[in-house]
Design brief:
Radius of gyration: 24 Å
Strand content: 5-15%
Number of helices: 15
Number of strands: 12
Oligomer: single chain
Structural class: alpha/beta
Order of helices and strands: EHEEHEEHEHEHEHEHEHEEHHHHHHH
Number of domains: 3
CATH superfamily of the largest domain: Response regulator
Strand order of the largest sheet: 7-6-8-9-10-12
Helix content: 40-55%
CATH class of the largest domain: Alpha Beta
CATH topology of the largest domain: Rossmann fold
CATH architecture of the largest domain: 3-Layer(aba) Sandwich
Shape: globular
Length: 384
């Protein structure tokens, strides 16, 4: 098998692109004999210096600027583009399905009872504008109200985070509540969450926030943890590599070839894990439970933060949520335990401590009562 030299001009600074790289590497390992050239770079970075003297056979790139596009055109080599910006016409490209991503967002919010839906985008990215258009059309078709905020493009020389925070704050204060916001990608969603925290807006009770890309570092570090659409980036990268391999072997490929992969779903975390509740006191109680669920709180603790009697609070919970405040505390605690079991290597004893249980045996008994399985069995099933 002929060994071919392939350049990857793909940023390594975000989860989306690392997923693309995983797919490309998987294809190369199992189906190709490639010498791969990849250096660490950021989105929209200038073409790397080594490209000037590089002699190779094919390129997979995220062509995010005209500068990179013009440089790559000069090579006259097979190229697959992984950007929706389309700075170079007439070459094959691969991307995720923006319409499907928007559909997941609208469905996620409407299933939770939200009727005020909003989109926060970056007009500097064509894929953000496409997602906005699809999201708006589907929101209106669902009989909901549509709102939007467009930030200054992140790479604009006039971009200022202080200015953007003020603009987001103004927008959030004007949104009717409860509202649900889909941001064009996780980084933008995190920025919205930061402003919500500064304004003391309860997330997700008053405003739910959804990102796109499921970038684990961003989503898990966000406060609260960020729900996000999961793109199938590994498949996108794999199919792009397969297409480039065919092109390098001389197989005719249409310059209009498109590889569009479907998103895998939504990873639900705290930022959208709610139902749309207009009752301010119930929303405040839900917010308190989510923030303090691992501190072994009781209903009496909630009552100190709402202007309701215990009887009134329980009545409103049953009417709006369908169960009691105590049952909601237990539901949230069990969900947190599931996350720790699924996503960490902590021992059962350590998880019990983090979940506010004095004894691991008691936590295990409660977990089995609520889920029908033990923590150990649950973890084994997740790792199967």
């Amino acid at each position: 098998m002929t060994r071919r030299s392939v350049a990857l001009l793909i940023e390594t600074s975000n989860g989306y692109c690392r997923g693309l790289l995983d797919g490309i590497i998987s294809y190369a390992k199992h189906h190709a004999n490639w010498s791969i050239h990849l250096t660490e770079q950021e989105r929209g970075a200038a073409p790397p210096a080594w490209l000037q003297t590089w002699k190779g056979d094919g390129i997979i790139a995220r062509i995010e600027t005209d500068t990179i596009g013009r440089r790559l055109r000069k090579f006259g080599l097979p190229i697959v583009d992984l950007s929706a910006a389309r700075h170079v016409k007439g070459i094959p490209w691969a991307d995720t399905d923006d319409e499907a991503i928007s559909r997941l967002g609208v469905q996620h919010f409407t299933e939770r009872g939200f009727t005020q839906l909003a989109y926060c985008g970056d007009p500097g990215f064509e894929w953000s504008n496409l997602r906005r258009d699809h999201f708006k059309r589907m929101t209106i078709a669902a009989g909901c109200s549509f709102h939007e905020h467009q930030m200054t493009p992140r790479y604009d020389p006039d971009f200022s985070w202080d200015t953007e925070k003020r603009a987001i704050a103004t927008w959030l204060n004007q949104l009717p509540r409860p509202a649900a916001i889909m941001a064009c990608y996780d980084f933008q969603a995190q920025q919205v969450l930061d402003v919500c925290r500064e304004l003391e807006i309860a997330v997700p009770e008053e405003i739910a926030v959804l990102g796109v890309d499921d970038d684990r570092l961003i989503c898990e570090l966000a406060e609260p943890n960020l729900s996000s659409v999961i793109p199938d980036t590994k498949s996108t990268g794999y199919e792009a590599a397969e297409l480039l391999d065919r092109m390098m072997q001389g197989e005719p490929v249409s310059p209009r070839q498109r590889l569009i992969t479907q998103p895998l779903g939504i990873r639900v975390r705290q930022s959208t894990d709610t139902l749309a509740i207009e009752d301010v006191e119930v929303a405040r109680a839900l917010s308190y439970i989510r923030r303090h669920s691992l501190a072994n709180i009781r209903v009496t603790d909630i009552l100190r933060h709402v202007s309701l009697s215990r009887r009134a609070l329980e009545h409103r919970f049953m009417r709006l949520i369908g169960h009691t405040p105590h049952e909601e505390i237990m539901r949230v605690r069990i969900d947190r335990i599931k996350i720790l079991l699924r996503e960490t290597d902590l021992s059962i004893h350590e998880i019990a401590e983090r979940a506010g249980f004095e004894y691991a045996e008691y936590m295990a008994a409660v977990f089995k009562r609520e889920t029908g399985t033990t923590p150990t069995e649950f973890r084994a099933k997740c790792n199967a």
